[in-house]
Sequence to fold (422 residues):
Amino acid sequence: MTNEPNDGPEPPTADLRPFAHGELTACLSRPHRMLDVVLGERTRLAANLRTGEGVKALVTIMLLCSVAFAVPFAVIDGPSRVGHIAVLFLGSVLLCYPSLQVFGSYLGVRMHPGQTFAIALVIPSAAALFTFGFAPIYWFLDYTMPADSPGEGSLTRIVLLVFSLLLALSHLNRCLFADSNLKVLRDNWALWVGWQVLLVFLTYRMAEALSLLP
Amino acid sequence: MMRSLLTLIASSAAYGFSIGISNSWVYGLRNLVKFPLLILTTAVVCALLYHVLARFFGVSLGFVMVQRLVLAIFRDTSRLLAALSPAICFLATSMPGPQDREPGEYRRFLMFNVVAIAICGCLAVYYRSRERLLANGSTQDRRPMLVASWMLASLLVGGQVCWYIRPFFGATAGTSERPWFTGTTPDHNGATSFYEAVFNILVPAYLR
Fold:
């Protein structure tokens, strides 16, 4: 059972430095690095969100990630629906973002709009990455299971999209709550929970509008 | 990695043969190809998700290293199952043929194999989750959760792969005229996919 080499470097301690501008822009030439920025190194991502450092580059990266990584999953439903998944997650967050910013300001969350926007964008970008991971599975299940309602939403797609959204929400929460300095949202937990409920509801309505549901 | 792959193919083929022989030589020989195909298809279809999950759980390993570790889990499981092959072969050949056997006998054999796969899978997951390589880059020890999520994904996808390329040792007699893969053909309960079949088992007919 132990043929593989078991010797590896000891686990390093968590890197708390925010991503530098150069590291973020490097994602444009090496898109696989987006996986590290958005999902892999959440303490560093949280540091960027907290300090606002490189927030413009971060927002650009996450917008691109939300669109590009959602394409493989969407394209399985046909070329005409190539943008549906990006619209589903990114569109819902864009619609909910003003409420987070305005309600947050009203309730005393002092954050720059760019920072709040970056926080909100963690959801569609992480969800897009999960749909990217699910894409081959969705293709395989779509291929091997008889269509339950051609042209309409299939149960497989719904289950995988729900998982993607839930995992993305859990990722954002652990980013924010893992960082003890990101107290502003944690102290206003009612706002934070309420906003997420609103986002989930809007995503559901968006899925209906995009004919992603049966 | 190549050696690991070859071990996996040989071990899973041996186990596949031993379960197939319970039905007929045709199924036994077909399983030499079908069982490795089942494992490799599952690993390929889940490859991207394994990598995304590794990043999600904070393990900073490259794509190839992740596949290598997952392959090691599958290889260990196959090797453990292959070790059971002689015993299973004996049980399979000492059992009456599909025409003569009682339904209970087939179910017991099926259950024995399900339990064997579960035990071997759990053992492989347990030992591989202790892999120090997996701790590389991880700030918190989330290895068991990561490996469990890999296995859950494999189970859910592998179940459907298994359904699509069945039969492996079927209840009815296998002849060379029977198709290699049954695909989406409904089973005796009308299920057309693995998930539907599990649903049919879990939910009584009067509640459906």
Q: What stands out?
A: The CA atoms of residues 69 and 132 of chain A lie 6 Å apart.
